[in-house]
């Protein structure tokens, strides 16, 4: 987690981060400890206040929250967590998700809620708890998101903002109430969910003990805020026609914002609600910077221990010496299965087109190109419904200049990059500033965003990438049966006893 | 050198070295039954394979050893082989007396020249990693050979030299062990491992040296990497885990606050209370009262 402190003019005063672990207690499980998240939040908040705010005599007007989507935390009637929080990356409900996705109910729920039918969705996680963890289900008074839990700890209020709520698969994004069919599928009533509220809502007062320990006044607003995806989009100023934003951190997404939802027979896009009549839509990929980090760990040169950053830089330099298109070596980046656009959890990685002239450097470049072709494939289908004239890129992998330039060439569109700060945090600043009346609306706030650094596309480069992409695109779906078959064998022959590994 | 065995209490060579329980060298040319029965000892046993191939069972798990491999058998762990047949080849070994502490940890004795905290760290890592096979570690065999030469040669200052070499052997072993367990390419994975080890023994008074040694790093690099990865110094990260665990325990009415303090590694309930209040704004007892209100 990170805390950024902004002054009223949108300049960062300071930022600090704190890590908490993700536990993988079983295959497909991905959990976090709510108490540790809360302690880490308090700790980091306290440090930044002491080091950057109180000493410089700043006064805190509001604290606005922004969190990852799709988490579920069950709490009992006293608000105490029952077990760990289940994160977005948890796939334990994959079988149920597949069944629902292929059913008429799945299609109906997708249209109503805007959340793709996938194990990431709290809809499926709650249904899973009901079916397989009956004791927890029975004891649960409320199913929260991690953010709702943190806000409740600080203020005592149970609230969820429309952005996070619209990523639960339980909210009707058209009339902004909990969707009956979804509640029925999950086996709960609306009383077991937190109260819905707009992103600008102040969730009650900070508890006395925290006012004292953090040295904050009772008037400090605790704004419930929004989700990382919505804020990255707002932070890049992508409100309005013709704009799209690409985020590539470990995973990635391509997003647009607008007053209409994207409809898709194949259920490939998400539609999340930011405010009234404002939807953030797009497609997520599992395979972003984490795939290149995997490649670096296997094949990079490490001059000093754990110096992944330096090793990535050396690889990028090596890759830049290979002609674009990697002399016809293609890479499918599906090491973690894939969400958009193919939505196939069984998908696997592959290098394709190898010939005797390919060298190590070709593999490096092909790996980067493969990750970005996948981003382009999401952008391409988004472009079928929205005309995209310009792009912005954020996220640590996306903003590496070698990658940003490649994105401009692949899309054949100018790409802008945020040089300072962090798009998610800047979006959250814009939201708080709008709440305070510094901006009249989010539209006005978004219009003030300037991203001066432009990467211009090169037509000839685009033509080469487009040729190779047509094969990439075919391969991504052509291997459907083989993906499943190899996945099954990988499971069948998986060595679970560590003493037999050699 | 021909094969030999020196044993404490029987061999004059070991008179000055009460901590060496046994040491020797074995060359085995033929397979014979009942030449290697399963044994359990109170000492720490280190075997260095110099020739041939051996199939041994350590703690009932089969392992295959080739030249350059080292078998490390902790006190109380059985070592043997199927049908008690030794296998063909040669090896050297040493069995050391180690102190057993109340908490089950082991520690090299005063003879070693290691400081108390270094000795404690080495003992902790040997138990934690419990990796019975260290492969490609012929360095250990060389050190053992040097110890043997000194024991028989009795040149000037050989007592110091033998003890120095034994300490060197333990240091090399520990370092090799942590490095073998951790790739130096994946810090997130290394950090996850550290996190799991800390959680398993939160009550232990961890030092930064020990934490660094768990993942095979020096303290300077370790502190720098932990800070840039987690945002916290190693000790502050540990406090985070301690308080998070304490919060969970405070929500259960059946454990006393003092027990929670000690279980989560605070040296007194006063220390616990101060740290807890500084971070959460509540004293542990207040916090507990608030959360058990409705039950």
Please give a handful of descriptors for the protein shown.
heterodimer; A: 502 residues; alpha+beta; two-stranded antiparallel ribbon; globular; disordered C terminus; B: eight-stranded antiparallel beta sheet; two-stranded antiparallel sheet; elongated
Architecture overview:
Chain A is an alpha+beta fold. Chain A has 18 helices and 21 strands. Chain A has a 7-stranded mixed sheet, with helices on both faces. In chain A, α1 (34-54) crosses α6, α4 (122-132) runs parallel beside α8 (180-186) and α11 (289-299) runs antiparallel to α13. With 295 residues, chain B is α+β, with helices and mostly antiparallel strands. Chain B has helices at residues 116-129, 138-153, 158-181, 187-200, 208-214, 219-230, 234-250, 257-263, 269-280, 284-292, and strands at 4-7, 20-28, 44-58, 61-65, 70-73, 79-80, 88-96, 99-100, 106-107, 133-134. In chain B, α1 (116-129) packs parallel to α5 (208-214) and α2 (138-153) packs antiparallel against α3. The longest helix of chain B is centred in the middle third of the chain and has 24 residues, at 158-181. In chain B, 36% of the residues are buried. The mean pLDDT of chain B is 90.
Compact overview of the structure:
Chain A has helices at residues 34-54, 94-101, 104-113, 122-132, 134-139, 146-155, 162-165, 180-186, 208-214, 228-235, 289-299, 308-319, 360-383, 401-411, 423-435, 442-447, 459-478, 480-492, and strands spanning 2-6, 12-17, 31-32, 62-67, 73-75, 85-86, 142-144, 159-161, 171-172, 177-178, 195-197, 221-227, 243-248, 252-258, 270-275, 278-285, 330-332, 350-352, 390-394, 415-417, 453-455. With 502 residues, chain A is α+β, with helices and mostly antiparallel strands.
């Amino acid at each position: 987690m990170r805390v950024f402190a902004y002054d009223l003019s949108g300049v960062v005063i300071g930022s600090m981060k704190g890590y908490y672990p993700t536990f993988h207690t079983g295959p497909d499980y991905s959990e976090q400890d709510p108490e540790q998240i809360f302690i880490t939040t308090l700790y980091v908040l306290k440090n930044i206040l002491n080091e950057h705010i109180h000493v410089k005599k700043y006064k805190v007007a509001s604290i606005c929250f922004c969190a990852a989507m799709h988490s579920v935390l069950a709490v009992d009637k006293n608000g105490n967590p029952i077990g760990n929080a289940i994160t977005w990356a948890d796939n334990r409900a994959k079988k149920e998700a597949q069944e629902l996705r292929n059913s008429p109910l799945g299609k109906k729920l997708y249209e109503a809620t805007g959340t793709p039918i996938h194990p990431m969705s709290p809809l499926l996680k709650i249904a899973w708890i009901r079916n397989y963890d009956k004791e927890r289900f029975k004891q649960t008074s409320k199913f929260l998101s991690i953010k709702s839990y943190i806000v409740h700890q600080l203020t005592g209020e149970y609230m969820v903002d429309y952005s996070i709520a619209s990523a639960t698969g339980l909210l009707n994004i058209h009339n902004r109430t909990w969707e009956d069919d979804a509640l029925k599928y999950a086996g709960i009533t609306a009383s077991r969910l937190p109260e819905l509220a707009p992103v600008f809502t102040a969730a009650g007062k900070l508890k006395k003990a925290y006012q004292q320990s953090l040295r904050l006044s009772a008037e400090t607003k605790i704004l419930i805020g929004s989700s990382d995806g919505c804020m990255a989009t707002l932070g890049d100023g992508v409100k309005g026609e013709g704009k799209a934003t690409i985020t590539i951190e470990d995973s990635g997404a391509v997003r647009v914002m607008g007053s209409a939802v994207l409809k898709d027979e194949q259920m490939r896009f998400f539609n999340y609600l930011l405010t009234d009549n404002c939807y953030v839509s797009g497609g997520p990929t599992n395979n972003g910077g984490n795939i290149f980090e995997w490649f670096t760990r296997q094949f990079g040169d490490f001059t000093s221990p754990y110096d992944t950053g330096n090793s990535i830089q050396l690889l990028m330099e090596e890759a830049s010496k290979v002609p674009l298109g990697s002399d016809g070596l293609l890479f499918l980046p599906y090491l973690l299965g894939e969400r958009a656009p193919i939505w196939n959890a069984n998908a696997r990685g592959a290098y394709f087109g190898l010939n005797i002239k390919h060298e190590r450097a070709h593999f490096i470049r092909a790996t980067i190109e493969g990750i970005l072709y996948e981003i382009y494939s999401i952008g391409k289908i988004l472009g079928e419904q929205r005309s995209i004239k310009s792009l912005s890129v954020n996220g640590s992998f996306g903003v590496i200049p070698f990658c940003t330039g490649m994105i401009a060439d692949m899309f054949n569109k100018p790409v802008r990059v945020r040089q300072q700060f962090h798009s998610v945090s800047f979006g959250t600043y814009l939201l708080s500033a709008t709440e305070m009346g510094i901006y009249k609306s989010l539209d006005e706030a978004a219009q003030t965003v300037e991203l001066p650094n432009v990467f211009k596309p090169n037509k000839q480069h685009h033509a080469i990438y487009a040729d190779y992409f047509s094969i990439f695109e075919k391969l991504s779906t052509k291997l459907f049966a083989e993906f499943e078959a190899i996945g099954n064998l990988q499971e069948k022959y998986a060595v679970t006893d560590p003493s037999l590994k050699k | 050198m021909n094969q030999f065995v020196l044993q404490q209490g029987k061999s004059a060579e070991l008179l000055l070295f009460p901590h060496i329980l046994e040491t020797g060298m074995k060359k085995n040319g033929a397979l014979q039954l009942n030449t290697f029965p399963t044994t359990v000892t109170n000492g720490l046993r280190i075997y260095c394979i110099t020739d041939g191939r051996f199939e041994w069972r350590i703690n009932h798990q089969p392992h295959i050893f080739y030249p350059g491999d080292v078998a490390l058998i902790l006190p109380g762990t059985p070592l043997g082989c199927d049908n008690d047949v030794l296998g063909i080849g040669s090896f050297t070994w040493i069995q050391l007396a180690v102190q057993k502490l109340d908490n089950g940890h082991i520690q090299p004795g005063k003879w070693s020249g290691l400081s108390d905290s270094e000795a404690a760290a080495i003992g902790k890592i040997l138990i934690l990693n419990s990796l019975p096979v260290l492969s490609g570690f012929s360095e250990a065999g060389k050190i053992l050979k040097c110890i043997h030469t000194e024991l028989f040669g009795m040149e000037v200052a050989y007592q110091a030299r033998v003890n120095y070499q034994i300490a060197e052997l333990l240091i090399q072993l520990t370092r090799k062990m942590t490095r073998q367990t951790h790739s130096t390419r994946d810090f997130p994975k290394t950090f996850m491992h550290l996190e799991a080890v800390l959680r398993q023994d939160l009550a232990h008074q961890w030092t930064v040296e020990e934490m660094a040694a768990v993942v095979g790093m020096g303290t300077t690099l370790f502190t720098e990497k932990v800070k840039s990865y987690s945002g916290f110094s190693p000790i502050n990260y540990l406090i985070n885990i301690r308080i998070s665990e304490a919060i969970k325990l405070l929500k259960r009415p059946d454990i006393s606050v003092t027990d929670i303090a000690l279980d989560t590694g605070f040296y007194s309930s006063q220390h616990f209370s101060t740290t807890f209040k500084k971070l959460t704004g509540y004293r542990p007892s207040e916090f507990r009262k608030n959360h058990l209100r409705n039950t």
